[in-house]
């Protein structure tokens, strides 16, 4: 049922989410020609960006046959379906987005928003990156993170094992170990 003589390219979606926040720096970073080119070079075919409350509007793009390769929307009642369909997720450092993506076993690049004061989210992202469950970047390092990314090096996150991460966060917050 495929095309005669041609190969049908598998659709591989990169889903970008900023949650309910405004994180224009992340949307801008994904919308740069070098990031888009590198994602396509790595075999991803489509980029879908959830821009939240942001004011920066990415450039919608299409390829020769008219199919969209970069689309965006502001909010959705549930991003679960987008996460399920994604081949790669690029997310803000919100714990809900992080753990939902890891639970689905999707490769994840968490981009830390350095504009947030008192950013405990970066602690969580960096700890999970150290444990090789995800990649951690800043908006200005996103391109290099994509270039260096080897999704095969990631270790599946076991949802039942939150204790080491919780202990790390408790220590960081100054609570004694039990």
TrEMBL record:
Location of the Glycosyl transferase family 28 C-terminal domain: 13-169
GO cellular component: UDP-N-acetylglucosamine transferase complex
Molecular-function GO term, any one: hexosyltransferase activity
InterPro entries according to UniProt: Glyco_trans_28_C, UDP-GlcNAc_transferase
A Gene Ontology BP annotation from the UniProt entry: dolichol-linked oligosaccharide biosynthetic process
Protein name: Glycosyl transferase family 28 C-terminal domain-containing protein
């Amino acid at each position: 049922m495929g095309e005669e003589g041609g190969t049908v390219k598998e659709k591989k979606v990169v889903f970008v989410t900023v949650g309910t926040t405004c994180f224009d720096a992340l949307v801008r970073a994904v919308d740069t020609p070098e990031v888009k080119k590198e994602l396509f070079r790595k075999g991803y075919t489509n980029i879908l960006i959830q821009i939240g409350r942001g004011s920066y509007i990415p450039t919608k793009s299409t390829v020769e046959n008219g199919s969209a390769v970069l689309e965006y929307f502001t909010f959705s009642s549930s991003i679960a379906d987008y996460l399920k369909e994604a081949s790669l997720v690029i997310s803000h450092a919100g714990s809900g987005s992080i753990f939902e993506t890891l639970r689905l076993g999707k490769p994840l690049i968490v981009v830390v928003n350095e504009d947030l004061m008192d950013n405990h989210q970066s602690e969580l992202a960096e700890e999970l990156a150290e444990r090789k469950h995800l990649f951690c970047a800043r908006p200005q390092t996103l391109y290099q993170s994509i270039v260096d990314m080897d999704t095969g090096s990631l270790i599946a996150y076991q949802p039942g094992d939150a204790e080491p991460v919780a202990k790390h966060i408790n220590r960081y917050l100054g609570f004694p170990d039990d």
